[in-house]
Write a structure and sequence with these properties.
The structure holds two protein chains of two kinds. Chain A is built from six helices and two strands. Chain A is an all-alpha fold. Chain A has a single domain, classed as Up-down Bundle (Four Helix Bundle (Hemerythrin (Met), subunit A)), CATH 1.20.120.80. A two-stranded antiparallel ribbon of chain B has the order 1-2. Chain B contains 17 helices and two strands. Chain B is 61% helix and 1% strand. Classes of the chains: A mainly alpha, B mainly alpha. At the A-B interface, helix 1 and helix 5 of A face helix 1, helix 7, helix 8 and helix 9 of B.
Chain lengths: 252, 588
Amino acid sequence: MPATFTRHQVEIEKRDTGYGGKPPVDRRPTGGGGGDDNWDSHSSRHGGPRELLIRYRLAVLSGLAGDFVFFAVLVSAFFVRPTAGHIDAGANFVSDWHPIAIPPILWINTAILLLSSLTIEVARRQLFHEIDVMEEWLGLGRPAVRRAAPWLAATILLGGLFLTGQWIAWQQLAAQGLFFATNPNSHFFYLVTGAHAFHLFLGLFALLFALVAIFRLKKVEMRQIALDCTAWFWHAMTLFWIFLFVLLVCYQ
Amino acid sequence: MNARMAGQASAPPALPPRGFLRRRIFTSDHRALAVLYLLLGLAAVTIGTLLSLVIRVHRVWPAVAFPFYGMLRPEDYLAVVTMHGTLMVFFVLTVVPQSAFPNLVLPAQIGADRMAFPRLNAAAFWLTLASLFVLLAAFFVPRGAPISGWTSYPPFSAIPATGPGQGAGMDCWLAAIGLFCIAAVASSANFLATILARRGQGMTFGRLPLTVWSWLASSALTVIAFSTLFAAALMLFADRHFGTSFFIPAGEVISGIPRAGGGGSPMLWLHLFWFFGHPEVYISILPGMGLASALLANFTRRPVPAYRFMVAATLLIGFLGLGVWGHHLFVSGMNPYAGTAFGLTTIAIAVPSSAEVLTWLAMLFRGRMQLTTPMLFTLGFISFFIAGGLTGPILAQPALDAYLHNTFFVVAHFHLVMAMAGVFSVFAGIYYWYPLLTERLMNQTLGKAHFWISLIAAYGTFFPMHFAGLAGEPRHYAQLAGPIESFPSLIPVERGITFAALTLATAQLIFFFNVIYSARHGVRAGGNPWRATTHEWCPDAHPITRGEPYAYGPESGPEKDFLPQWESATPAPSQFGAREYPSGLKPE
């Protein structure tokens, strides 16, 4: 059975153990949680309904942890580089760090990216909506996929718009004569926005893959995984972008 | 909600594919990948060892011409040192403990039949292999291999004009490192997901073998450290090719020609590199520490005392390992106050490390020791870990390090604590797990000969380097003798070191012979030759875990002195499932 968001309280049946309220003591090695947490009665190879999903999420999160470190390292250069000036003969601190004006289009891009994160979250939640998912699981049509697909398509569109916007921002900077190699700050600007755009470019492929996958994959669980992992990747990219954008706007 | 339905949804187990290539090479089977990783490590260690012999011979006989090459120029010497370090650190000390061994036993030890992401795992191997080829290609590109050391400090590494090998060779190095980083992060993501979410029935966190805990810690470190290195390598690449100056300082003069531009900070590279480099030490040694605990329990036939404490120490070493990188930078112009802080964190990491060592010693004390080959190599590991580790707190003092940093004392320190301890734990692992691959034991006599010669020769090689270092002999010098002898009184010591190194390298031929010979003629191992408790020795592919990982000792049962994890201490469960119901009160 696939994982779902449960909207109603599950009633836990309390059974009389026949001991006058006192639970029987089980001295065999159990899962450690006591009570019914007995690993011996779990199935080993297929686990619970969420196990496969959790496994994929863990791998994606591990990769994203690495990605976060990657961006943090690039940012460390941003903090170190301005301090790497020297003191000239007149005892003046000379630095070649010249702040650049952020192209205003980046504000629009930021809004677009935030919106895309919202749309993919809506799409993701459709695939966990219990009633629809149960219908899909029982083979009674594909209501969840049909609901998710437009939101996913909207995300792809917004992602494409964001990348186009970034491209325009680079063009605007280039028109001002600021290229990758122009000055230390432009190195940094192009490097972080470029690295981020490359991630989103891969993310667009992942979104396209997820869009195809939710129609083509036979298992409900795998459809959920395809969209869920893409969504977490996309959210992380939005988060990284906000981090980078705040840095570019406020800390030059 | 029931498991049977979920079971039906998944595909039936596929039959193993036929044909050697499909089974052994182009496969996502973790055992086959482990063999491939071991062969890759073997190739790298062979080349790396030959390069180290070139270093040793050149240091004492600089006039000797090498076959197929001729005289070694100073820049060739630096290229050899660079490639030796890179091969050994990345492709031996990382690949074998952190990639080959987990592929060999990690799924089995947690009661799983395969990795969480077998194809990702296989892709990581092929990327690692590609990385090795790209690195070795540096020998054959115009102007040869890079010469800026395995740490590739800028501006040397950032400006191609600074020397031969700093052009195409350095680019090969950077490309190889980039590929290796991607592979390492991918395989570690797979290990993390496997350990956290693919544990078999009954394998709670409290029952994980200590090796698995080590791989958990080292995989988390790998994700962080290698991502750092990747970003740093990317910036260095941009400095070399796209006109940036992240790491190139202003006012560089190369071969008398002033260089325009710059203004970056080489210190930034040092910080970033060692933020990778120091966790890397723990990535390669933590699996060895976990293995030492497991093997000591196995061969002293007593449980690991304070299991939870050992787990905590392992995780603490991993965590603190992220905060000590600055002790590599004491003499590089870092703020002295920062030096004091990093000295303190370095002393702090000695605490959990010593706790582990003391636990091992406590296990040896009055343990019923069985001196099998894997046990001998484990004792060798502990010996080197202590011998090399003791100089750690010395080098962690900024004041002492100021004198010792650029001397052979540091070479002695890290070759003992990282290289020899790491390699001895690798040998322990290979001798111990060999029956898993061949169903035969490795020859004990040859193994013991290999151990004793290696132990004595390794100490003979690396221990005198302390004295050379204390006498002030600098590292990175191409030659000691020659027209002007810099340290004539040290030449006998150096010569002795070279003889010991040659002996050490030759002794490994015994190991190679043993590996090949025992595959055919070794003693049949049977199911569980070491009478071990962890799941890699379980005959069942889907074992249920029923107990602690290291249940050794006479209290385990009347007939035998150990209780495997797949056996229950109490009689088989009754037909009523988990709970014991008194008669007449059966549940429906």
